[in-house]
Amino acid sequence: MSKSVAFHTLGCKLNYSETSALSRLLEADGFVKKDFDEEADVYVINTCSVTENADKECRQIVRRIQRKTPDAMVVVTGCYAQLKPEQIAAIDGVDLVLGAAEKFNITTHLREIAKGPADGGGAKICSCDIEDVSGFHSSYSVNDRTRTFLKVQDGCDYNCSFCTIPLARGHSRSDSIEGVLANIAELGAAGVKEVVLTGINLGDFGKGADGGRTRDTSFFELVQAIDQRADERVQRFRISSIEPNLLTDEIIEFVATSRRFMPHFHIPLQSGNDKILGLMRRRYRTDLYASRVARIKELMPHCCIGVDVIVGFPGEGEQEFKETFDFLHSLDVSYFHVFTYSERTNTLAETMKPVVPVHIRNERNKTLRNLSYQKMQYFTEQHRGERRHVLFEHADKNGMMEGYTDNYIRVQVPYNANLVNTIADWTV
Predict the structure, then answer these.
(1) Distance (Å, whole) CA 158 – CA 237
(2) 255-264 in b/e burial notation, b at 16+ Cβ within 10 A?
(3) Distance, CA of 138 to CA of 238 (rounded, Å)
(4) What are the strands of the beta sheet with 335-340, ordered from one edge?
(5) Of all residues in the chain, what percent carry a pLDDT higher than 90?
(6) What is the pLDDT at residue 145?
(7) Strand partners, 423
(8) pTM
């Protein structure tokens, strides 16, 4: 009788694409996929290191599994599993912890382990020093929604003072252009209409699996190749989060004239104050960021621009926050993803002073989220009444369905099965 497996994912779109890849590996090995709320023989928890309460969340999920299916095998992988394997292994009910180099060997590990404590007690840990992680494993999400996230790059060579991602994922490395095109062909054959390119530091695409730039390629060359050579059944592409210092004029200019890349960018800012950007060890300042936004809007006035911003970083006083607010208010951008700073072990920022009180961090988060709402409302109203191409998604939500325009405006309409996974000319 076939064994069953269920998955739970915490964190970013990259994690979701990797969970989908793990699911396909196990299904190819004979496992039957179940929903996480169903009883299964194996539960896989793909964790995140950015989540403030990663340990707490993991414990809560394992307890849910134990109450429901106490004899099930529990596997924990992902960024938090790489950073804190011993801490996770000590959680009652966890059987297997897979670090960054081992997550895609999950089928082998499951064949070799039985339910119950490993020799010496606790879960079995299969991990290594992050410096030794060099392979690239492509992954993409399918069956979840019409838009699919395709991982083309992993790891990061930057050393931002607040971030643990390089410790969890290792050096920057990426797929080959031909590898990306092959994955897009698979997605096209599966009926996918839109692919979002994703990575930890996407604009750094081109470094080989050994961490070096062994291939003479760049992210710009990848974008060109996709536009010209990718499977025509995939009609739309988006660029997910890309660092402003890596978003070159040639990329912006190419997207402006592209027939397949959508007018939509997501560009991390993190702070609108240059002093804080310096403390964060970011590789740009506000003048460069503003110039990128201005260039995009000059060529694509209709373009949607999303922004990542962190509030409450050490040293962010009232003046620094005001400058961030004013800078964001002045920019012709469409929405923000606002993150409240939280201390991370083994980061430089953990030792920085003065510390911003948590209640002030939360107040600033709310302030910027309110501004984000206003920005998105304004952006949407600018295009109200326009005819734009909308890709409608599968979900039936209380008799309604939704889709996104080329420039990422959400459209909701009464559910119509004939519209599912189609691109329609629609009035916003």
Answers:
(1) 26
(2) beebebbbbb
(3) 17
(4) 264-270, 304-311, 335-340
(5) 74
(6) 60
(7) 391
(8) 0.90
Coil, helix or strand at residue 33: strand
* For residues 140-161, average pLDDT: 86
Q: Is 253 helix (H, G, I), strand (E, B) or coil?
A: helix
- Of 312, 264, 21, the closest CA to residue 142 belongs to 21
For 220-242, give one letter per residue: b (16+ CB within 10 A) or e.
Answer: bebbbebbeebbeebbbbbbbbb
Q: Which amino acid is at 247?
A: L
- CB-based contact 254:220 (threshold 8 Å): yes
Candidate CATH numbers 3.40.50.720, 3.80.30.20, 3.30.70.270, 1.10.268.10; the one for domain 139-308+326-333? 3.80.30.20
Distances in Å between the alpha carbon of 90 and those of 74, 103, 228, 395?
13, 19, 51, 39
Strand partners, 195: 148, 237
Give which of 50, 33, 76 is closest to 268, Cα–Cα: 50
CATH number for 4-128 (one of 3.40.1190.10, 3.40.50.12160, 3.30.230.10, 1.10.10.10): it is 3.40.50.12160
Q: What is the pLDDT of residues 97-126, one digit of tens each?
A: 998 889 999 999 998 876 555 445 568 898
3-state secondary structure at position 156: coil
Q: Which of 405, 204, 402, 210 shows the shortest CA–CA distance to 304? A: 405
